[in-house]
């Protein structure tokens, strides 16, 4: 089976969402040359147990403290990816959004992270801004 980012499993998509939140905060730290652990990683074990609740918390922190301080194209990329992933998650009943995640969330997390690296290797910052 070939894994695609569009894989519709709830846990898989929540893993992608975790990677996107991590990347948004890392973009800020790269600009400020800080070397800190991201909130996405700090809350990873809690995220696995209550993904929607923790997503809301981290997303709020990102909007309050980080997204306004990174490049507009980076913030836009974050918003677009979160929207895409939440569109997949909206197919699930609301009472399932906060259920614990299966181990497959790690596959979504790693594949999304790899997608960021692949895009970075294939595009210059100028191309990504457009």
Number of helices: 7
Strand content: under 5%
The strand count comes to 0
Q: What about the largest sheet?
A: none
Account of the protein in words:
By secondary structure, this protein is mostly helical. The protein has one domain (10-129). It contains seven helices and no strands. It has helices spanning 10-32, 39-42, 44-49, 51-66, 72-89, 105-122, 125-129. Helix 1 runs parallel beside helix 4 (51-66). The longest helix has 23 residues, at 10-32.
How do the strands and helices of this protein lay out in sequence?
Elements: H1 10-32, H2 39-42, H3 44-49, H4 51-66, H5 72-89, H6 105-122, H7 125-129
Helix pairs in contact: 1-4, 1-5, 1-6
Quick recap of the structure?
With 130 residues, this protein is mainly α. The chain has helices at residues 10-32, 39-42, 44-49, 51-66, 72-89, 105-122, 125-129.
What tags apply to this protein structure?
single chain; 130 residues; mainly alpha; 0% strand; disordered C terminus
């Amino acid at each position: 089976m070939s894994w695609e980012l569009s894989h519709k499993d709830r846990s898989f998509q929540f893993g992608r969402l975790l990677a996107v939140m991590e990347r948004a905060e890392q973009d800020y730290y790269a600009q400020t040359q800080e070397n800190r652990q991201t909130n996405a990683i700090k809350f990873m074990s809690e995220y696995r147990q209550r993904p929607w609740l923790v997503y809301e918390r981290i997303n709020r922190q990102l909007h309050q403290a980080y997204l306004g301080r990174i490049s507009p194209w980076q913030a836009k990329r974050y918003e677009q990816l979160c929207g895409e992933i939440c569109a997949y998650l909206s197919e699930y009943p609301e009472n399932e959004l906060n259920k614990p995640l299966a181990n497959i969330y790690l596959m979504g997390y790693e594949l999304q992270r790899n997608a960021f690296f692949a895009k970075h290797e294939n595009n210059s910052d100028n191309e990504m801004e457009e």
